[in-house]
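Here is one chain, start to finish.
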Amino acid sequence: MFEIDLPPLESAEPWRLPLSERLQMLRAEPVKVAYYYHHPDAATFRYRCYNMARAINAHVPGVSASWFWDADGARLLDVAKEVDVLVLCRAVYRDTTAQVVDAARRFGACVFYDIDDLYFDPASIPLMVDTLGLREDSHEATEEMWTHRFGTAARHRAVMEMADEVIVTNDYLAGQVRERLPQPVRVIPNFMGDDQLAVSEAVVAARGEPRADGRLHLGYFSGTPTHSRDFALVAGAMARLLRRREDVALRLVGHIDLGCTVLADFADRVEVVPYVGYLELQRVIGQTEVNIAPLQNNSFTNCKSELKYFDAAAVGIPTLASPTFAMSRAIDHERTGLLVPDPEWDHYLDLIVDEYNTLGRSLGQVARNHALTTYTPTTQAPTIAALIDPNPGG
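Its structure:
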């Protein structure tokens, strides 16, 4: 594991500004774009609202953007009346949502709906529940779970149908939307914000040589408990690797219960790191030599973005990933990472361990160059700007 001479980074929530400051930000330029999400968080909100708005403010002349959420209450209607573009991110139907859309449209705004998965399609709910393993969740009564999931999907769909256009994270999801809805669909991928990029640069600059234990650490970085079925794809191969190689260790970050996995016998070489904030995560990834990103392959998971790849790539760490739609398009196999079909995890885990000093380091460096020229505000700003001017220069 790499030594990184940086203090732990506290959880950051830079988006939690007073409404007055966010309104001032919105009104800074003649053309105004408002992003709405039900509450701010470091996941969907950060990628689909906060990063988007900051990219506009930094790189799109004459346009200003800001972000808003449910706690802003009745002021959301005032915001809707003065913006040129309103982006509703994963919004569900309720009276206030309908009123905000109506106000925006009456005052001449274009309304977009931004979504990053299939949660708008009630017919896809059984697949989603199965993929996430929710049928085994003892914390939700089955009837309540089904009612909640189907109801939420229908409420997403109702707001999507109000929008002028839909924004998604990749072309696969765009195709799924086009099959179900008549609105035009645009693709704006997830990307890193300037704060994540700055921390990543500091991590790379501060990284020393591997620690003296002489072990190669493979990391799995799980954001939520619903990734247990994804990790199960590689758990057996990982256990076999640990059995064969005493010089390999595993780092699990997030929500994995070792007592329920085939890895329980290797607890002395498995480090479990509790959930950390998104900036500290870059340091944690940067300490780990290899990133593994197994994912089930179906129409639900193919809608997911490649963020697990570029988060690791930003700190020069190579990724072994399942060949889902987004990962297959982000990763140039054997150049910026390794795409691993389910039956081949044993082979590629052995390969990256045996050839880490050559192949692994090369993959990490090339992936870093790719991430820093692709998944940044500067690179993605022209695509975001097209929300305001669909025919730039025309």
